[in-house]
Amino acid sequence: MIRIEGLRKTYHSRGRDVVAVDGVDLTVPQGEIFGVLGQSGAGKSTLLRCVNLLERPDAGTVVVDGVDLTALREKQLRAARRRVGMVHQHFALLASRTAAGNVAFPLEVTGMSRADRARRVAELLDLVGLGDRASAYPAQLSGGQKQRVGIARALAAGPQVLLSDEATSALDPETTRSILDLLLDLNRRLGLTILLITHEMDVVKRVCHSAAVMRDGRFVESGQVAELLRRPDSELARGLFPLPPAEPRPGETVVDVTLSGDTADEPILAGLARRFDLDVRILNGAVETLAATRAGRLRLALPGSAAETAPALAHLRERGVLVTEAGR
């Protein structure tokens, strides 16, 4: 659905060139939620604006639903952008228009009839849970309600792709969860492909099927979240499930284990204790649901030296559990 190859964007500032996006490749299959995670200045927002060509890249291609947007003339590009909805960090609503008026605005631009607009707006406001707030102005809405209006407006033209620019960073934690749950529901119900950027690890944890970590205009790692969890060197995996230091007792071997998919719900540790007659201690960790995947990391203490616990750890690896030295 989205394919980016060799994307590069440079700005000229104060007499020098600043590379915001440096040769990024990205593929987002249809119906997937892909998160780009990074701190301020990493190049995330520039990348997102290049996807719908609000910023034209200096090099590279952007293909959405089989159409190379970088090859289109301006008139063709305006038409192609209707397939791509955009949700903004600070809502970007028109203060002089009601919720219904804001959602109707892009439909007015396309020339849709008044009656058809009214039907479509009512349908969209119901979809985002604001059917009873159609006549409210932005000043009368909470932050979460404003973002729901923004999402409804982004969906007005029936896009196949939704871009989310830090859509929850201005919201409190509870409202953030409700907006992320809405995006996940829309992804499932409408088959929307969603590309979102964020600096919050919890956003990736709650809704993303795949993710990339961006730094200095480049992806330092990317892939399906479930696959990244199985990589011992994954920065994303460590961020999703951080394990605080824990003090082992004398004579114990401490390891970190990463569980994903079937292993996250199987009685792996109980079986290990029975088979090897071990008293396994869980020092810390968690098992949670990441989008639709169960996953987690645990820090375990096993009685005995590294040599003595080696058979038990080999058994875990045979069961598909990633086992690494604690803290690595």
TrEMBL record:
SMART domains assigned: AAA, NIL
Keywords: Amino-acid transport, ATP-binding, Cell membrane, Membrane, Nucleotide-binding, Translocase, Transport
InterPro entries, sorted: AAA+_ATPase, ABC_transporter-like_ATP-bd, ABC_transporter-like_CS, ACT-like_dom_sf, MetN_ABC, MetN_ABC_transporter-like, NIL_domain, P-loop_NTPase
Domain ABC transporter: from-to ranges: 2-241
Residues annotated as transmembrane: none
Any one cellular-component term (Gene Ontology): plasma membrane
Family matches, as Pfam families: ABC_tran, NIL
GO terms, molecular function: ATP binding; ATP hydrolysis activity
KW Membrane (keyword) present: yes
GO biological process, one term: amino acid transport
Stated family: Belongs to the ABC transporter superfamily.
Function statement: Part of the ABC transporter FtsEX involved in cellular division. Has ATPase activity.
Subunit (UniProt): Homodimer. Forms a membrane-associated complex with FtsX.
PANTHER family: AMINO ACID IMPORT ATP-BINDING PROTEIN, METHIONINE IMPORT ATP-BINDING PROTEIN METN
Name by which UniProt lists this protein: Putative ABC transporter ATP-binding protein
Originating organism: Actinoplanes friuliensis DSM 7358
